[in-house]
Structure formats: C-alpha cells, structure tokens
Amino acid sequence: MAFPKEILKKFENDSPKKILERLKKDRTFFRDFVYNASELMVLPYGLDPYFSRQYTEEVYDAWIDDLKRVSRHDMKSEELDHFKHASHLCFWIRRMGPILELMEKDSFPPDSHGDKGRELDLITKYRNEYLAFRIGLTICGDFEPHSKHPKLTYDYIASLCRFMRYKHVSPHALFLIYKSLFSEKERPYFDEYLPLLAEA
Questions:
Q1: Tens of pLDDT, residue by residue, the chain (200 residues)
Q2: Around 14, how many Cα atoms within 13 Å sit in the side-chain half-sphere?
Q3: Nearest to 86, CA basis, from 156, 23, 26
Q4: Which residues, 6+ apart, have CB-to-CB distance to 115 below 8 Å?
Q5: Rounded Cα distance, 9 and 179, in Å
C-alpha cells in the first residue's frame, strides 16, 4: 500500500515542524487537516467521509491535553518528538472515531476488484483505525528521510487495524510501533546471538 505522503502536498512550503506546531495551536487548521487527510485516503475508492465535528473537536482537546501531560510529567518539560506527537494523535482519533460513515459518491462508484477491492473492504470496516494509523504514519514520515519510509503490506495494515479495533493499544504501544517502522534495519538484532545458541 502506497505511503500516504500526498496528504501534506498542500503544505509543502512549510517545514514538518511548522505544520506540527500549527496543528497544535490552530484548532481550525487541525480540523481541516484531519478532514483533508480522510478525503485523500478514501476518494480513490469512490467514498466520501461523513464526520462528526464534535468528535473531531474532542480528538483535538484530548490530544493537546495528552501532549501537555506527557511533556510535563514523563519528559520533564522536554520537547516531544514526532513519534510521540503521532502516537498520541493516532490513539485519540481511533478512540473518538470522528468518521461516522463512509458514503458512496454517485459519480464515482467504488472499485471493488482485486487489491483495490481488498483495501476498500479494509477502509470500510476499519475507517477510524485506518485514518488514525495513516495520519500518524504521515507525520512520522514527514520528519524521517525517505530511505527510512516503510513499505507496508495489506496484511500488516489489516492486522494492525483489527488489533486497534478490538484491543487496548496505548499511545506508548503506538509510539513503539511507529518508532520501529522507521528504524534502521541493516540486520536482524538476534543475528549475533544465533551462533551462540547453536553452540550451547
């Protein structure tokens, strides 16, 4: 599945840090960003997202409160990195579920064939989980070099969406997921230990 960098095209004249700061300071910008991100994700499948403005506002409030709390208590007032910003935002989008429904666009019927059909089923079933993960992934990716951008399979995203829907996935767990996806993968961590185990 393609990396969702297209979400930030309209903001390409701003640095990632400026975009993130504006998301935190400007409630209207935040709401528009989430709406636009959702539309860009589902329009290729012939869908149109129907949002709850109230739930979107609650996402913003909970996210800002979380960032302040974590910075104050866990990070000793140090600046939070993009992984922490993304993981807490992903958590609250999933938890609040701002997308109430995905409606078919009359002039653009959904493509339900092949891989696109599988992705359509995934987005329809896990609309808020999918949106939450992809927005967080985009924020992380905008700060990280292209060489670190992960190539995620359908099975990976489907499993993660199911896990986020039916299990409690904390912001700390999401932080580790995003961090690991963008980590260097030059060789498996356990390579140096396998020969020792074989000799034991």
A1: 444 455 555 555 678 888 899 999 999 999 999 999 898 888 888 889 999 999 999 999 999 999 999 988 876 667 899 999 999 999 999 999 999 999 987 665 566 666 778 888 999 999 999 999 999 999 999 999 988 898 899 999 999 999 999 999 999 999 999 999 998 665 555 555 555 555 55
A2: 12
A3: 23
A4: 154
A5: 23
Q: How many CB atoms lie within 10 A of CB 98?
A: 27
Beta strands in the chain (DSSP E): 47-51, 99-104
> Residues near 77 by Cβ (< 8 Å), separated by ≥ 6?
71
Beta-carbon contacts of residue 35 (< 8 Å; ≥ 6 apart)? 49, 51, 56
- Rounded to the nearest 10°, the torsion over CA 60, 74, 71, 97 is -10
Q: What single letter denotes the amino acid at residue 82?
A: H
171: which 2 tokens?
């912001």
101 strand-pairing partners? 50
CB 39 within 8 A of CB 49: yes
Residue 124 and residue 102 in contact, taking contact as beta carbons nearer than 8 Å: yes
